Amino acid sequence: MRTTITLITLCALLSLGASAQNVDKVENDILDNYARTEINLPQVDGLLPLKADLHVHTLLSDGAVWPTVRIDEAWRDGLDIVAMTDHIEYRPHNGYLKSDHNASYIIAKPTAEKRDILLIRACEMTRAKSEGGHLNMLFINDANPFDTEKMEDAVNEAVRQGAFVTWNHPGWPDNICDFNPINAKWIKEGKIHAVEVFNEKDYYPYATTWCNEHNLAPIAASDVHPAIRDLYKVGVRRPFTIIFAKERTLESVRSAMNARRTLAVFNNQVAGNEELLVKFFKASAIKEMLLNGSYKLTNNSDIEWVTNFGVIKANQTIMVDEKNAQKPIEVYNFYPSHTKSLVVEL
Amino acid sequence: MRTTITLITLCALLSLGASAQNVDKVENDILDNYARTEINLPQVDGLLPLKADLHVHTLLSDGAVWPTVRIDEAWRDGLDIVAMTDHIEYRPHNGYLKSDHNASYIIAKPTAEKRDILLIRACEMTRAKSEGGHLNMLFINDANPFDTEKMEDAVNEAVRQGAFVTWNHPGWPDNICDFNPINAKWIKEGKIHAVEVFNEKDYYPYATTWCNEHNLAPIAASDVHPAIRDLYKVGVRRPFTIIFAKERTLESVRSAMNARRTLAVFNNQVAGNEELLVKFFKASAIKEMLLNGSYKLTNNSDIEWVTNFGVIKANQTIMVDEKNAQKPIEVYNFYPSHTKSLVVEL
Amino acid sequence: MRTTITLITLCALLSLGASAQNVDKVENDILDNYARTEINLPQVDGLLPLKADLHVHTLLSDGAVWPTVRIDEAWRDGLDIVAMTDHIEYRPHNGYLKSDHNASYIIAKPTAEKRDILLIRACEMTRAKSEGGHLNMLFINDANPFDTEKMEDAVNEAVRQGAFVTWNHPGWPDNICDFNPINAKWIKEGKIHAVEVFNEKDYYPYATTWCNEHNLAPIAASDVHPAIRDLYKVGVRRPFTIIFAKERTLESVRSAMNARRTLAVFNNQVAGNEELLVKFFKASAIKEMLLNGSYKLTNNSDIEWVTNFGVIKANQTIMVDEKNAQKPIEVYNFYPSHTKSLVVEL
Amino acid sequence: MRTTITLITLCALLSLGASAQNVDKVENDILDNYARTEINLPQVDGLLPLKADLHVHTLLSDGAVWPTVRIDEAWRDGLDIVAMTDHIEYRPHNGYLKSDHNASYIIAKPTAEKRDILLIRACEMTRAKSEGGHLNMLFINDANPFDTEKMEDAVNEAVRQGAFVTWNHPGWPDNICDFNPINAKWIKEGKIHAVEVFNEKDYYPYATTWCNEHNLAPIAASDVHPAIRDLYKVGVRRPFTIIFAKERTLESVRSAMNARRTLAVFNNQVAGNEELLVKFFKASAIKEMLLNGSYKLTNNSDIEWVTNFGVIKANQTIMVDEKNAQKPIEVYNFYPSHTKSLVVEL
Predict the structure, then answer these.
(1) Which residue from B minimizes the CA distance to C312?
(2) pTM of the predicted model as reported, rounded to 2 decimal places
(3) Are D316 and A38 an interchain contact pair (Cβ–Cβ within 8 Å)?
(4) Long-range contacts of the stretch D155-161 (C-beta < 8 A, 24+)
(5) Quick one: pLDDT at residue B230?
(6) Which chain C residue has the Cα nearest residue D21?
(7) Shortest CA distance to B212 belongs to which of B243, B179, B242, B238?
(8) Which domains, ranges and CATH numbers included, belong to chain D?
(9) Segment B87-136, tens digit of pLDDT
(10) What's B227's DSSP letter?
(11) Residue of D38, D178, D315 lying closest to A38 (CB–CB)
């Protein structure tokens, strides 16, 4: 005899759970699956678009979470690279902790290996703006020697350890983003190599222009202190730096940064070198001509475009009609400098 | 002269950000506002429906976050009460920490006061199932004396301190939910006062029936170890216990728990005493008769209903037509015991 | 013998569906439940906050859906009142249709009764801006006599039928929102009674001020042509007018409109009479003083607030600290005129 | 002199809108952008995975929307092909309409050309189950001759016009999915070429097996009557058939259907020929070995997988650890027949 069953997913299980007399446990499918969500971005000139958050904090300085959490978050957020940049000077939980300045790196390392995340040993110098402000020392060997009285000494220690140095949130905390003398001097001397164009929720337009004028790598970083999902609204991707590397290794990442092959990405805005931006945009775009002279334009990347033809989200296609088909595309959310947005001919 | 301006929100700001030459900083509206989202539930018999998570972990035992994070999370999740229940026996971060068993309470207390969250001093005993399994000791004065060799001694310490004791996840870890002899004995002796019907992602149907048979308070708790938003899928509310209290004070909460005035809520399922469930449902329901004999039924609470008339989400209204208007409402996701769901006449 | 089952919701059903040999059909829980989502707004002076969309189109003029769809949409969107305002002059589907100007009302009426939606018979006059632009004739008896050559005749027909007349999108299509002579004349003569401050995606700031100066009722309307869910982004509530009525009847609605007791709501912005706005805000706000001089402020309505203390969404609570506790609340998204936002003392 | 401006997106615009005295109109960014969201699926054997909804209704029979709406919806949903299948026998709006059975195709055609959607001329025969039930006649030249008294005559008309015939929702309306004699006869005679495995919200497991046994093409279709976004919950993709075609032309689509190169997709479940399913899965999967013997598995398609290693959503990666690395992948939501799910070795 045939049996006919009609099921409604939720009701079926709920009533099953409630009434079945021999069920010891009902597991509900409510936990996050802890999978990694990839960020789809195109290669440029055959180089891999690795994604990095080069500025995060943990409980070892003034963050609220254990260092391993930063790796789990990076895995889930589709990042390839994390730099553990706890403050040297500010460690409010010291009354309950026993650790030196390398602890966050050491604690995070095994999880990073398990998660296949590239982990950069680092620290953050934390001074007044007039003394150089906040600088991240990346690719260091030992964070403890950075615990110096004078900022100058820390900068020279960075030189000694061959560090890559980024100037953080240059308009913080006074909302004035000026090219102040002490940082200008270190940039001129080749001791600062990059600047944050985007930090947490903030965009510093001038910093993009500084990258052009002083050969700095543009950086976007979260500077996260709480859990990352506690910081941003649901659906917002954290700021990250695209590093165009030959291979997915720390050596290759360092080479790419030395060559300033980075783009800074933040809330669907991208800042960086104009030539690289154009290549990156073109590598993301699919243009299909139609018989009537119009064309279909597809955004084949996970970064939304705001254009003269309208908004084109990740994975979306618009129709550009015949009378607009000869016009260049203005990409309002791609910034080659603080005075203009990108214009591209496909 | 009149000026006409047409603005498109996002484009306007982005291009403003990109092209304006005198802007030092553009703040993007991407951060979570850290506000509290209220959980709307009805009063029953004039009693306040306070919401509690009575089982959470922090870095002081095997959690991944600092104790203050649990308060911030509770504030944002609309909870009124948190019990800080770090394990006595399992503290994997001890190599980096210096603290006794009261630390998580002491660290969290000032934030709890600032956030107006009622904080219960507590700890979790963590033994094999055959030795009593996991028990939360709530409303204690000092967690350190619970660091005993024998579970029996800890249970007696709970008696000494006047604790309220909950039996946690009774079907864990072997998926067998049986009323084992040692816990049965303590329940009989009045030393265990409540049982988790819901824990993290799991529902233990038998536990609802035990509440009826042995005068236990039904509990729902997250047992969270990572950040709460890392644990659950977006949009899922964590398990919580409704405690029907006269006032929003710890004394009143304790009285309500002593009187077993609790309902356990989890993934839109509610378990507890049948009489209380009926009152709770009726206090949430608005019935409006129409001229043709049909009626409108509104769910005026934040807990979804799965009924014989369909799913009715929070704040939703359905039309019950004339020919069904005399039928009772079967609420498939309200459990007065493990063998049936709730039936209500409005 | 005891049986132990562990279920994961989705997997369980999918594999059940796939492998069970005696299942003829598996219904997936993927359909919208067609329930009504209520919009929670407070009463003011004991008057009901009825919600109306007074401007919608159907296939009978240049819309894309059948008139009954507008009722189903209104039900699901939590509205109480709809006016069916098909164009008199523009009916592009006439080659396939046979109908007069009352058809959309007549077709929609039985569904409106079933859904308990108040349906207003209406039509839209559709002329050049210099001839009076677009006017909605609400509460008419017969739409056919409005098929006149001159707009003046239609306006006088409205007087004859006792219609309530709204001036639609006053800055359309040229983006100039001026108080043009012909409409000014009709307003002065008492033949136009209301003006759309908000229409579809557009806000006309001057119109709010006109309401104050010329005793017009402020209106917000969708002017929808496609299906409503095709028009707006997911999560955006359509524009609607709150009509503060004594009862939920068309007579009471008309009285309220005659008395200009309306507020216009659009994308979480509210425009209208200052006194009414203040009452409405206060009726939505819950202020709870704390011992330290700070207070909790809860938004007990479904309209988000953008204030000097931050964004407070529906159902959210913020903490206003002691040093701000004496300051008035500036509500940036409540507009009593085009030159200022609301300031309230609680 | 330098000017410093700090902007918060929403507040800035709202207060600008409210207070600026020279703004005639503020356009809010709340409309859907009407772009097309692509469905990313892999090619198989160099064939294009075209996406089709072969069963939709319009106002010309018992649908609620105009035929052009079905094209706009298909564009936005990322479909390539639509068949306009209005009922021959059921046209409840005839009192208001003047049209023959080809009208929905003729009305939709210009929009289909503009949107670059392949439009199949079609109709649906609508009889009792015992008379053959519901059959879609696809790729016809003229729908009017199908208005016959006997179903047999319509089936023979399909043969005359060279139609491709699908058997719709075989378990409807009695929830019995049996291979009834009349349809069995037409299948045997080569007059029915496909069967709906999925229709609207329903899955008919036996139909998958019939495809294997009788060389039928598996079909998934929405059978939509209201606007598509009114039918399904937000976030649910409608059922669609993947047709593996050499080119994106109707001729190529027909060839592929003749060759039974289709897969039926519905609520992240995929049914079809086992060999094709395996190829399709493998073409979607990226496996990256790690040094420790574990591997990363990425789902490079827009169809979620439910596997023995957990749920892997579109664009997600999981880690398969060393001890599981030799196990085959069981894909619980891929159905090669009604008795089993897919097992793949990568």
Answers:
(1) B35
(2) 0.95
(3) yes
(4) D155/D125, D155/D186, D155/D191, D158/D191, D159/D191, D161/D137
(5) 98
(6) C339
(7) B179
(8) 48-270 (3.20.20.140), 279-344 (no CATH)
(9) 999 999 999 999 999 999 999 999 999 999 999 999 999 999 999 999 99
(10) -
(11) D315
